[in-house]
Design brief:
4 helices; Lipocalin; Glutaredoxin; mainly beta; eight-stranded antiparallel barrel; 393 residues; 3 domains; disordered N terminus
Length: 393
């Protein structure tokens, strides 16, 4: 449908303004999201209080290709001035999802009924996977009239900036952040909810929730630890040039070291990488080093390194990104590469080493800016802890 620099270009361009978009998921459901066209070569995707801007927009004949920032996914769609119709494509995962968008000032979810409930507050949620396994989560929501914003936290991270509405007795929430395409739809009763969670058009889970202002998730600093028999954390993986890097290298000598287990495909990792990139620039001269061990699903070293370079450029990362694994993000395989850990629960996982390279903290998952005060408290606590390690001699 498009994309050849040798072809002729059309005069057709995206019209400026707000668009309501839909991705088709399972069970005939539609995942809505909103974006704004700022110029024919700049759009911003809006999720609650988050705005994601891309300027990588290519026109060809009657079509447009919109490459999203950092992640490899892109839209490929037939274009009229006020309507788009095509696919959201993630090549490395061999996934395609039908996509529609049109100029509209309508709300994310149609407000066809007045809300019968207010979901503001903390909810204890249990998700049930297709195999019957369950995992806990915490819903944190703020409702104004019918509109709901908030997030869902788990023991391994948050579902980022959710936005939606209570329509009658139904709660509907969604997020599209270039990688996540999540839809939550639940029926409400007094203090309870029961629903379905859709991830793209390839996966779904059921969930139920109850109001519980006192609910707490597991301590993220108690989930991952060194196994008995191991006294230290070690690694050796290649950088983008193929050079093997490990903790004995001169750059890490007598330095406090933050080791990040992550992937370029992971939105929670992106949130943490934004934080660490800035944090490193602030504390590098005081004796801090950061290194990321990356786990990539793309099938070749070349594609993996290209994704790493894209992330480094986008976030202005000046610490090394080492390729620990490609072709799979399987956490069992990741743990085999890091046998001193009891388990790799999550991307990201952050290991903090003191100047003697002894493990002083392991933090599983990452609760980013969408978690509000939780994120603010984390930044304050993490900063104070690293400053304490830097002062140690």
């Amino acid at each position: 449908m498009l994309l050849s620099s040798c072809g002729s270009e059309s005069n057709e361009r995206l019209s400026l303004g707000r668009y309501r978009a839909k991705l088709l998921v399972q069970d005939g459901q539609q995942l809505p999201f909103v974006f704004e066209v700022k110029s024919p070569t700049s759009i911003s995707i809006i999720n609650g209080d988050e705005s994601i801007t891309t300027t990588e927009i290519t026109y060809f004949n009657d079509s447009v290709r919109i490459q999203l920032p950092v992640f490899e996914g892109y839209f490929k769609a037939a274009l009229s001035k006020s309507r788009l119709e095509g696919l959201f494509i993630t090549e490395g995962k061999d996934r395609q999802q039908q996509f529609y968008a049109e100029r509209s000032e309508a709300t994310r979810f149609p407000l066809t009924e007045a809300p019968a409930f207010d979901v503001t507050g903390i909810w204890e949620i249990t998700f049930t996977e297709p195999d019957g396994n369950t995992y806990p989560a915490m819903g944190v929501f703020d409702q104004t009239d019918a509109i709901v914003k908030g997030t869902i936290r788990t023991n391994t991270g948050d579902y980022r900036f959710l936005e939606g509405a209570v329509v009658g007795k139904t709660l509907e929430l969604s997020v599209f952040d270039s990688a996540h395409a999540f839809l939550f739809k639940a029926s409400l009763s007094a203090g309870q909810m029961q629903g379905v969670f859709y991830s793209g058009n390839h996966y779904k889970e059921t969930f139920e929730g109850y109001r519980n202002a006192n609910f707490e998730l597991a301590d993220p600093e108690q989930l991952t630890y060194l196994k008995e028999g191991y006294a230290s954390f070690e690694f050796e993986f290649p950088d983008e040039s193929g050079k093997m890097v490990n903790l004995s290298d001169e750059r890490f000598k007598e330095k406090v070291v933050i080791v990040q287990l992550m992937g370029t495909w992971c939105p929670n990792c992106l949130d943490e990488s934004k934080f660490l990139s800035s944090f490193y620039k602030t504390y590098q001269e005081k004796g801090l080093e950061v290194v990321a061990l990356t786990f990539e699903y793309v099938k070749t070293v070349e594609k993996a390194n290209a994704n790493l370079e894209r992330l480094k450029t986008f976030l202005d990362i000046s610490y090394p990104l080492l390729l620990a694994q490609y072709g799979s993000t399987d956490k069992v395989l990741a743990q085999e590469k890091l046998p001193m850990l009891n388990k790799v629960w999550s991307y990201p996982t952050t290991i903090v080493l003191d100047r003697n390279h002894q493990v002083r903290k392991i933090h599983t998952g990452y609760n980013g800016p969408a978690t509000g005060q939780v994120y603010i408290d984390f930044v304050a606590d993490f900063t104070a802890f690293v400053e304490q390690l830097l002062d140690e001699r």
